[in-house]
Write a structure and sequence with these properties.
60s Ribosomal Protein L30, Chain: A, alpha+beta, 460 residues, 2-methylcitrate dehydratase PrpD, 21 helices
């Protein structure tokens, strides 16, 4: 007899669409004492990291292709494409900057949900802010609140929503972008309900696309959809007032897990941006512990040429997400824990250059990847890795990483974050302009306008 796996819808869900809209539209923001300096500093770190990632990937072929497609629409020059001289309409700028910010898979990560929250939210905000002439403080406040919406909804649905195949960055990012843009447009509570309601009909992104250009399309498309949702709401377009929580609303349609308390608990006191993290390695987050371990092996004077095999033990999720044994290009290698191990042992780190097509296809990297023997051990946390290098002379060198660099327990320092920013931006903008842009990012919350950031974020 077939088993009925359908889960009954919750007809008694709290009015989370209304509750979140109230939170976004009426929260006083930092300047009025709405959150502390620590939260505000994390918002600036998030903005800096996002902008560096977007500028760094500005010349990638995925951005070239997307820009060429957008230009067929003959867009009005309303907003900047970061790291490039072209201007496009603000919706297209949100799309393009969202794509570039995620292309290197180097962006921020809310580890509880694996959401990359800044891509959709910051990309929509900066494009809109350039058009409206918003202040830096208005942008930072909207960034905090938009990320709060996307990550709280993610908290409520994860992991079921993700396990079903949704790319949670895109699906919740549409909501975060809509909320942030509604805040920037100063929409009232009811208009914000409409913005979230419109966005709720546009969840974006499937995990099948990982390793292709369409993965970074997800945060870009979410940014564009969220921005358009807020613009529609500002002009009187309507949606269901229960679009998130209704039995046939977004959340109960795309997930059987909906822990409503994750959305409404400590709302206005706990801000999810406080739990944001930043990647030291340009690939899927679950590969980071293995790269960290292999970099530590290199620091112990283990040479790639001495390796007989690499014994890797990881949680099953690591191989589910990043089990590509023979990646053919850089995008695929970002989902190969085998390549991550080879990069860590060879270079001692794994920034974007270590995931270039040329490096991925180097004979020595191919040979070293094939020496990685990965086994599943679900007693190991998905944020950890157990690595043993077995050398040709029979020696065994072991490293266990419980929390990789870049995690909440072992965070990227300001110095490391700035070094990452320079590594991304300098090839595009040069050293002097990169330094000026970094200073402008750190001071954006005090800026009367965003003119300085925008002028410095494109080639002179």
């Amino acid at each position: 007899m077939a088993r009925n796996t359908q889960v009954a819808a919750d007809h008694h869900a709290p009015a989370v669409t209304q509750i979140l809209s109230q939170h976004v539209a009426t929260h006083p923001g930092f300047a009025a004492g709405g959150w502390n300096e620590t939260v505000d500093h994390e918002a600036h770190r998030t903005f800096l990291n996002w902008l560096g990632c977007a500028v760094g990937a500005a010349q990638h072929e995925s951005v070239d292709s997307a820009l060429a497609a957008v230009q067929l629409l003959q867009p009005a020059p309303q907003a900047s494409v970061l790291g490039r001289s072209e201007k496009v309409d603000m919706a297209s700028a949100a799309l393009l900057n969202g794509i570039s910010s995620h292309t290197f898979d180097f962006d921020d990560t809310h580890l509880k949900t694996i959401i990359h929250p800044a891509g959709p939210v910051a990309s929509s905000l900066l494009a809109l802010a350039q058009h409206t002439g918003a202040s830096g403080r208005e942008l930072i406040d909207a960034l905090v609140l938009g990320i709060d919406v996307s990550c709280r909804v993610g908290n409520a649905m994860y992991p079921d929503h993700y396990d079903r195949g949704w790319h949670i960055t895109g699906s919740t990012g549409t909501l975060g972008a809509a909320a942030a843009c509604a805040r920037l447009l100063k929409l009232d509570v009811q208009q914000t309900v409409m913005a979230l309601g419109i966005a709720a009909s546009q969840p974006i992104g499937m995990r099948e696309q990982f390793g292709t250009m369409t993965k970074p399309f997800h945060p870009g498309a979410a940014a564009r959809a969220g921005l358009m949702s807020a613009l529609l709401a500002s002009k009187g377009f309507t949606a269901s007032t229960k679009a998130l929580e209704a039995p046939r609303g977004m959340m109960q349609t795309v997930s059987t897990k909906n822990t409503w308390s994750e959305i409404i608990g400590a709302l206005g006191q706990r801000f999810e941006i406080s739990f944001n993290t930043y990647k030291p390695f340009a690939c899927g987050i679950v590969i980071h512990p293995a790269i960290d371990a292999c970099a530590q092996l290199k620091a112990k004077d283990v040479e790639a040429s001495e390796i007989e095999r690499i014994e890797l033990k990881v949680h099953s999720l690591v191989l589910e997400l990043t089990g590509k044994k023979e990646p053919q290009d850089g995008l695929q290698a970002k989902f190969s824990v085998y390549h991550g191990c080879a990069a860590g042992l060879t270079f001692g780190f794994a920034a974007e250059d270590e995931f270039s097509d040329a490096v991925v296809n180097r004979p020595d990297m191919v040979a070293l990847r094939r020496k990685v023997v990965a086994t599943v051990d679900d007693a190991i946390d998905e944020a950890s890795a157990d690595v043993t290098a077995v050398l040709q002379d029979g020696r065994r060198v072991h490293v266990f990483v419980k929390h990789a660099i870049g995690s909440m327990q072992n965070p990227m320092t300001t110095a490391l974050l700035e070094a990452k920013f320079r590594g991304l931006s300098e090839p595009v903008l040069g050293a002097q302009q990169t330094g000026e842009l970094m200073a402008a990012c750190w001071g954006v919350g005090e800026a009367a306008t965003l003119d300085a950031v925008l002028a410095l974020a494109v080639p002179r």
